[in-house]
Design a protein that fits this description.
Layout lengths: L8 H22 L4 H22 L2 H4 L5 H26 L3 H27 L14
Helix pairs in contact: 1-2, 1-5, 2-4, 4-5
Amino acid sequence: VDWAYPRSVRGVLKIARTLVALVTLLCFVASNAPRAYAALAGMEAVITVLFLLLYLLRLDARMRCLFWPLADIFNSVTAALFLLIVCLFAIIIRTNKGTLAGGVFGLILLVLCLVDAVLLCKKISLAKARGRSAPAK
């Protein structure tokens, strides 16, 4: 277990994304918003928790079949696009205050997703060799 990860910037960002996604989910569920809104927030919470556990338990170093930071960037960008669409609909339609609050929290989650993607892009270098594909010296 990597106990330093939850205290790192990326770890705090993942925890914040999870908490904001849960708040967004609760707002959408409590306001009887369309189920697609709640499904998006719930999926984002679950996927973020899975990535948090992946990095916390150092499973990314054990499972080298996938370049996990790139998968995390893809998740963050895709989630940001879906959140932009859904949360703008929720804010524009705003059937009640819960839907409006869910839309606002969803936009905050969108910003957190973009910040996470930018931090991950700065972290990875595709030119750096990794694992078994590294050239022999």
